[in-house]
Amino acid sequence: MRNESVLCYSILDPxxxxxxxxxxxxxxxRQPAVxxxxxxxxxxxxxxxxxxxxxxxENVWAELRMAGGEFCGNASMSAAMLLQIGSGRQGGEFALxxxxxxxxxxxxxxxxxxxxxxALAEIVMPPALDIEKAAFTFGDMHGxxxxxxxxGISHLVVEPDSVFFALLDDRPAAEEAVxxxxxxxxxxxxxxxxxxxxxxEYCMTPLVYVPGSGTCFWENSCASGSASVGMxxxxxxxxxxxxxxxxxxxxxxxxxDPADHETxxxxxxxxxxxxxxPEEEL
Length: 282
What we know:
Elements: E1 6-14, E2 19-22, H1 31-41, E3 47-56, E4 59-66, H2 73-87, E5 94-100, E6 107-113, E7 119-125, E8 130-138, E9 141-150, E10 153-158, H3 171-185, E11 190-198, E12 201-210, E13 215-218, H4 223-237, E14 241-247, E15 250-257, E16 262-278
Parallel strand pairs: 2-3, 4-5, 10-11, 12-14
Antiparallel strand pairs: 1-2, 1-16, 3-4, 5-6, 6-7, 7-16, 8-9, 9-10, 11-12, 12-13, 14-15, 15-16
């Protein structure tokens, strides 16, 4: 029998972007408070999602809502791993369609076994709504940045030739800037993707702000930000782009094809703990 005085949640590691997924029912209005309580308990957690799911014979239905209502690719991979464990179909390939906040259509995911009880995860990311250049001013900095608008979140790609690349060495200023830029754009969430490299190998440092949950994190990896970089590079080249992005938590691989607007992202996900949160901690 379920203990109604506690909330059940799991901690997962999708390429270093530590994620908590709550599997107990939580009303949307309470989700930011629950997320905040979990993040107080676990300072390493960068985001919290709320998963509803069921099984109908061989078919899985599932919905993931992030605490701020944004879209998150790494949390989607994490939810897919929990659904695979819950289905009892570990040890082989596991595919599903997952409805995620911030995306109008379900996303497709596929998990394959990896070492140390982890999984190699692939997700077909929602396509960009638009790729454009946007002008910004911050302090005495003035310039334009590539803007990749996606459902549920947008990203600015900051490269070494941009005046704003200096923000990478002034993190408090970067955090202030991403908040200001997000408000200017009216975005559900905004990332600054500091990108350096060429060809098919890049290093990326992601900073992500989500107004709905009040969170601003230098993330160990960012799936939607990685996808936005792949989309931008493919758009510039006018052909399919395949890149590896070395981020603080590990490597994410992106393939984006502007011809069919399909972007696939691959990473690694691992379950690290299953826990309970007493109601009195909220």
